[in-house]
DNA sequence: ACAGAAATGATATTGAGTTATCAATATCGC
DNA sequence: GCGATATTGATAACTCAATATCATTTCTGT
């Protein structure tokens, strides 16, 4: 697919490497533009596609939210969505009970949990 | 908002009353059209809005999926998304552990769980 | 039955997110 | 460094869910 590497691609990759939470396309664009102000939205989406194809990035979908992206090398985790600042944080622990959760009529292969509430900054503000 | 009731509205309401799972606009439309073939998409969306305003319907958002709607009178529950037939089922039980789940830096006010796997029909097929 | 108002249905429009187009630019093997 | 070509950036175009428009139909109170 991609045959050459470019400053733009490397910059976008670094944005995700240095982010502690999954990013919206918009957020990734702003972050990348801080280093390369002329970087365009098309390039951002092209880079995201490359990085997904190469397995570097994966999609993070939260209910009712637009798509976010994060590095795929992370361990199994869930997300916390602050209802005040709207930011999404990673929740590293996964309630053990959920992994052993069984349902009579279904074969559970995976699960996704989204927590809602207030993040540290917002709860103290 | 709405001042008169109509056959269309009643039909759409019945569709949700008799459905065991949350419905996409598309699905609700097809179901309603089985009784009123001429019913249009605009009427469907208008009815959904009315039924939401009146508190009868609520929104169900699943990660990466378009909006579904279900009756809001149901108890706290979660959803199961069959990766084969793509249908969404209700999961009435909620793992107790999740309600008591705490995180050091966050105030958890709510949670949303989506299970993925195979439903009864698909696991046996 | 009639007039006024509300609801319908067909369709145009919106808006958000994403992809396609294409001339200009940057990259890489030689 | 040069030439071939992959990538970029600006922007047009697309997709999909949802809403607005508006002429027509239906309902309701008198």
Describe the structure.
The structure is a homodimer of 125-residue chains. The first copy, chain A, is 35% helix and 25% strand. The termini of chain A are far apart. A three-stranded antiparallel β-sheet of chain A has the order 1-3-2. Chain A has a three-stranded mixed β-sheet with strand order 5-4-6. Chain A has two domains: 7-71, Winged helix-like DNA-binding domain superfamily/Winged helix DNA-binding domain (Arc Repressor Mutant, subunit A, Orthogonal Bundle); 78-124, 2-Layer Sandwich (Dna Ligase, domain 1), CATH 3.30.1490. In chain A, helix 1 (7-17) packs across helix 2 (25-35), helix 1 crosses helix 3 and helix 2 packs across helix 3. The first copy, chain A, has helices at 7-17, 25-35, 41-53, 96-99, 120-124, and strands spanning 23-24, 57-60, 68-71, 78-82, 88-91, 107-118. With 125 residues, chain A is α+β, with helices and mostly antiparallel strands. The first copy, chain A, is built from five helices and six strands; from the N terminus they run H-E-H-H-E-E-E-E-H-E-H. Chains A and B meet through helix 4 and strand 6 of A and helix 4 and strand 6 of B. Strand 6 of chain A pairs antiparallel with strand 6 (107-118) of chain B. The structure holds a DNA duplex (30 and 30 nucleotides).
Count of spatially separate domains of chain A: 2
Q: What is the name of the CATH architecture of the largest domain in chain A?
A: Orthogonal Bundle
| CATH fold naming of the largest domain in chain A | Arc Repressor Mutant, subunit A
Please trace the helix and strand order of chain A, writing H or E for each element: HEHHEEEEHEH
């Amino acid at each position: 697919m991609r045959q050459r590497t470019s400053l733009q691609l490397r910059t976008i990759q670094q944005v995700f490497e240095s982010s502690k939470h999954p990013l919206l396309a918009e957020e990734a664009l702003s972050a990348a533009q801080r280093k390369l102000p002329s970087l365009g939205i098309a390039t951002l989406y092209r880079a995201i596609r490359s990085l997904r194809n190469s397995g570097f990035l994966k999609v993070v979908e939260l209910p009712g939210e637009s798509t976010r992206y994060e590095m795929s090398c992370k361990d199994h985790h869930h997300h916390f969505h602050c209802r005040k600042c709207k930011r999404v944080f990673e929740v590293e622990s996964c309630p053990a009970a959920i992994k052993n959760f069984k349902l009579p009529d279904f074969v559970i292969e995976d699960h996704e949990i989204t927590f809602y509430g207030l993040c540290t900054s917002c709860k103290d503000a």
